[in-house]
Amino acid sequence: MPSITLFHTPPPETIKAQVQQMVIDYLTDVSQVAIAPSNPLYQLYQYGVGFEVHLYLQAMDGTRNLPVELIVALDEHDPETVLGFVLYQPVIDDAQACAVVYMAVRAAHRRQGIARSMLQQLTARYPHVELACTVNKVAYFEAMGLQVLAARGPQVLMNTRDYRTDGLLPVLDVAPIYSSLEVRQIHAYLLAQHGKKVMTEAEKKRDRHLDQLTYQARLFVDERLGG
Questions:
Q1: Containing structural domain, residue 32
Q2: Overall domain count for the chain
Q3: Strand partners, 159
Q4: Domain holding 57: CATH number?
Q5: According to the model, what pLDDT value does residue 227 have?
Q6: Using CA atoms, how far apart are residues 187 and 193, in angstroms rounded to an integer?
Q7: What pTM value is reported for the model?
Q8: Could you give the angle at which helices 42-59 and 13-25 cross, rounded to 10 degrees?
Q9: What average pLDDT does the chain have?
C-alpha cells in the first residue's frame, strides 16, 4: 500500500511538480469545466487550472491568508513518486470542516483503494468534508461515505454530513489567471493555429457541455432529494 502523507506547509518541489502535472494530465476529470481533450480550448484550460493549483500550493506558506493543506499517496517502492493527492482547504471558524479543491489518482493506480485511503486520512483530520463532482462520480463518493447535498452549477455538492458548515472558506480568485498575458498568448496561438471559426465553435461547444452538465446535476439532485 502507498504511504499517505500530510503536508500543511509547502511540500518539496518534486511533489509540487507531480501534483500540478496530474491536474494537467487529468484535466477533464478534475476541472469543473470538464472540457474534453478534443476541444481546441483544452490547452488553455490546462494552463489555467495548472496555474491555479500552483497558486494553491504557494499559499501553503501562509503568506496569502488562504488556508491550504495537501495529502499525497506516495509509492511504497519509490517514495518520491506521487500516486494520488487531495488538495483541500480547512474551513475558518470550524475546526472539523474542510473543502476538497482538487483530487486525483494516477490512471494506472486507480481501483486500488488509494482515493479511499486518502479520504480516510482526511476525514480523520476533518470529519466534516465537502467536495463537488459531476453526476457520473456521485456513486463513487457515496461508496466512500459522502452524501448528496445540492446541485452547484455543473457539479453535485457532496458532504460527509447532511448539512454544510457555517464556517468561512476563503476562495482563490481565478479570474486574473484567465485574463493574464500568458492566457491571452495561448489563445492567440490557438486562434492562429485553428482559425476564428473553429475557436468560436470550440467556445460554443464548451458552453453547451457546461449547460448539459448543469442540467444533469440539477435533475439528478431533484430526483435524489425529491425536490
A1: 3-225
A2: 1
A3: 130, 147
A4: 3.40.630.30
A5: 59
A6: 10
A7: 0.95
A8: 150
A9: 95
